[in-house]
Specification:
With about 725 residues, this protein is an alpha/beta fold. The chain is about 55% helix and about 15% strand.
Length: about 725
């Protein structure tokens, strides 16, 4: 994809890259983000878009991608190609860390390749090896020091160094004790000079102590002397330390030579980690801007639904303001859109939104649109946005724009997306408008896709006349003349020149004089457009209201149909259950008659004959059913029984509720006597008390007697006392 620096500047793409680079976690990743450019090869572009989409999805699922942070290996990779070069210890540690990170990442992507197929595929050919880490860890420990066992020679040297240091300590301690007893030493007794322990000798006794003078105090009262016996061991220590340094250099040289064959692998490691960091930054930016990967098509169809300008979205989000999304469509049947309307209505931001989102998409970034959006790719994007006066080249705005149009004519083709703000301005309105119309016709004839903003009436008319071009306007509130930032396709917009002037306090007399100075036809044309816009706005509101009512009506109709269906099913079930029960009652009556006859004559043969006749009569009414029909009948009966059971349960619950809600009768304590007529509080039968024992009474109901607690009885009539 070819892109002008001017287009990058006009669409503020560099600002997006700067924001993007701040989200990368490595220095090289930040540089890579700032260097991002539109990708020419479509397969590579789609691969990067899908990879970023996978990385974005990882933030929300449990299989989060491991950390990919690493230190720059450029210096180490460069040194590895130079013969006899030696890497620093920190360089080895950076290589080991990068190798460890790569191994973790590649194993992770292999394990979860179903979740991250594109990210896995880009690292599938990179070798997973532990040789680098093992080679480095065998020489350098976790504290960044060369191990004692890095070589047998180093082990022996360090063993000797340890022994000599022990001797130095012992000899110094003897000298300290000897000269301290002799009172040759100052109160501090000892000090350290050039990393050596020295005796703090009183200046008057310095000739009495054999050794090397290492210095003196500021006052000269103390002389620092290293004892002669210690000095001999110190010389031996210096020689051993020199040997140790040489051996460490030899070991590091050998380790460097061991790593040299891995130089191409390290280059791959670094490239892969930088790529992952750029994917991570793009995924984080997508998360911040609520961006997605829309559907990609090859039909040259661009449909953006709920599209946001990312810079405006982030700025408003930070300030707590609302950002208005836009819907816009460019297809083969609608290649060019002419947006008109008053200033400050959002025309330019709509233009920039389309251009910036297309640039981001073709750079491998996700874009803030609705998932119903569909996008395509263009070979080039050309723009003419802003004033662009050139002081250095002494060009006016119009001259500069004409120079830009010359470039447009040279480059514009069917795979071009052009974006022009305030098309035709900078010259005489009639002459400039005529030239702009000619340019627009040329772009149209070349089948280019594009969006322009204008106030010129002739361009609005042209858009209305040509079949693959359409008008659009930014909707304004009819009463307040404030923008509502809603793009309306298919209709030109009025500039509302005089209406806005009147709203801003310009005297009506001046506005009226201005109207008289222009052609009557233009005023009527602009007034007609303004009227159409107002009617369109009203129709939109009415349409929204009708759609809501229609939606509610459809929902209510569906609910009623479902309810009606359920009621019909229940009625059929109840009817079948009722018919079945009626048949059972008739059959039961017949069986009862047979039983009565058998009771009277006690003859079994007539009984059996009657029963067989009864069964044959019932069977003659039935027809044989298939297994499926029997199963269906069984299900219907079970369903009906279930419904009836539920209904009975509901009735019982209601009765229980009513019973609980009913006032509880106040129990009055009664002294019951024999012969009292009583009944249970929740019963109707009346009985007589025959006897009373221990708060219990034997109540006689005539046919039977029962024992009842006195507190459960209610007095109906007291027994008559004998006079």
């Amino acid at each position: 994809m070819k892109i002008q620096e001017k287009a990058l500047s006009d669409l503020e793409f560099t600002t997006v890259l700067q924001q993007l680079s701040q989200l990368a976690i490595t220095a090289m990743g930040k540089e890579r983000c700032l260097e991002l450019q539109p990708i020419e090869k479509e397969t590579e572009l789609i691969l990067q878009l899908e990879s970023v989409s996978e990385f974005t999805a990882s933030f929300a699922n449990e299989n989060r991608i491991p950390n990919h942070g690493f230190d720059d290996l450029t210096a180490e990779i460069h040194l590895l190609k130079i013969e006899n070069s030696v890497l620093e210890i920190d360089g080895f540690r950076r290589i080991a860390a990068a190798s460890d990170i790569i191994n973790i990442l590649l194993k992770f992507f292999k394990k979860f390749k179903e979740y991250y197929p594109k990210l896995y595929g880009q690292g599938a050919d990179i070798e997973i090896t532990k040789e680098l880490i093992l080679s480095i860890n065998n020489v350098i420990d976790r504290f960044g020091e060369v191990r004692n066992d890095a070589s047998p020679e180093l082990y022996q040297i360090r063993k000797k160094i340890q022994s000599v240091r022990s001797k130095i300590g012992q000899s110094f301690q003897r000298a300290l004790s000897q000269y301290s007893t002799a009172d040759y030493l100052d109160d501090i007794k000892e000090s350290v000079v050039d990393n050596r322990r020295v005796l703090a000798v009183k200046a008057m006794h310095r000739r009495k102590i054999k050794g090397a003078i290492m210095g003196s105090s500021k006052t000269g009262s103390i002389v620092y002397i290293e004892p002669e016996t210690t000095l001999q061991h110190t010389r031996e220590l210096n020689n051993l330390q020199f040997e140790e340094t040489d051996e460490i250099k030899r070991i590091l040289l050998e380790l460097t030579q061991t790593l040299q064959p891995y130089r191409p692998l390290l280059i791959e490691y670094q490239k892969y980690l930088i790529l992952l960091d750029s994917y991570y930054a793009r995924a984080k930016y997508a998360e911040l801007t609520s961006s997605i990967l829309p559907k990609i098509n090859s039909k040259r169809e661009l449909t953006l639904v709920d599209a946001y300008h990312p810079l405006l979205y982030l700025s408003n989000k930070k300030e707590g303001k609302k950002t208005f999304p836009q819907d816009i469509t460019l297809t083969e049947g609608q290649r060019i859109i002419v947006i008109s309307g008053p200033n400050a209505g959002g025309k330019s931001i709509t233009l920039k939104t389309v251009g910036l989102l297309q640039l981001m998409l073709q750079t491998g970034m996700l874009i803030p649109v609705h998932e119903q959006s569909t996008v395509c790719f263009f070979d080039q994007i050309i723009t003419d946005i802003g004033d662009n006066q050139s002081i250095e080249n002494h060009l006016s705005t119009y001259s500069y724009r004409l120079k830009n149009m010359k470039y447009f004519i040279r480059k514009c083709n069917k795979n071009t997306l052009f974006l022009i703000d305030e098309f035709g301005t900078g010259s005489d309105p009639e002459l400039g408008g005529a030239l702009a119309e000619a340019f627009l016709e040329e772009f149209y004839n070349r089948e280019a896709y594009g969006i322009i903003t204008t106030h010129y009436s002739n361009l609005k008319v042209l858009a209305n006349e040509l079949p693959f071009m359409s008008n659009a306007n930014m909707q304004f509130d009819n009463h307040t003349l404030e923008p509502v930032f809603n793009l309306i396709l298919g209709e030109a917009g009025s500039s509302f020149t005089f209406e806005v002037a009147q709203k801003n306090g310009i005297p009506y007399s001046l506005i009226n004089r201005a109207k008289k100075k222009i052609e009557r036809g233009k005023v009527r044309f602009d007034a007609t457009i303004a009227k159409l816009q107002k009617e369109r706005s009203q129709m939109t509101k009415t349409g929204d209201s009708l759609r809501k009512q229609e939606s509610k009506a459809i929902e209510e109709n569906a609910r009623l149909e479902l309810l009606n269906k359920k009621i019909k099913e229940k009625l059929i079930g109840y009817q079948e259950l009722f018919d079945h029960n009626q048949r059972m009652i008739v059959l039961g009556n017949k069986v009862n008659e047979v039983a009565d006859r058998y009771f009277e004559n006690n003859k079994k043969r007539p009984l059996v004959a009657d029963l067989l006749r009864l069964v044959d009569g019932e069977n003659s009414k039935r027809k044989k059913k298939t297994a499926s029909e029997k199963k269906k009948d069984k299900e219907v009966k079970e369903k009906a029984n279930t419904e009836a059971t539920k209904a009975m349960v509901g009735i019982r619950k209601e009765k229980k509720k009513k019973k609980k809600a009913a006032p509880v009768p106040v129990k009055v304590k009664v002294n019951f006597k024999l012969g009292d007529q009583v009944r249970l509080f929740d019963g109707k039968a009346v009985g007589t008390i025959d006897s009373i024992e221990k708060e219990k009474a034997i109540v006689n109901y005539g046919m039977f007697t029962t024992q009842v607690r006195l507190e459960a009885l209610d007095l109906v009539q007291a027994a008559k006392t004998k006079k």
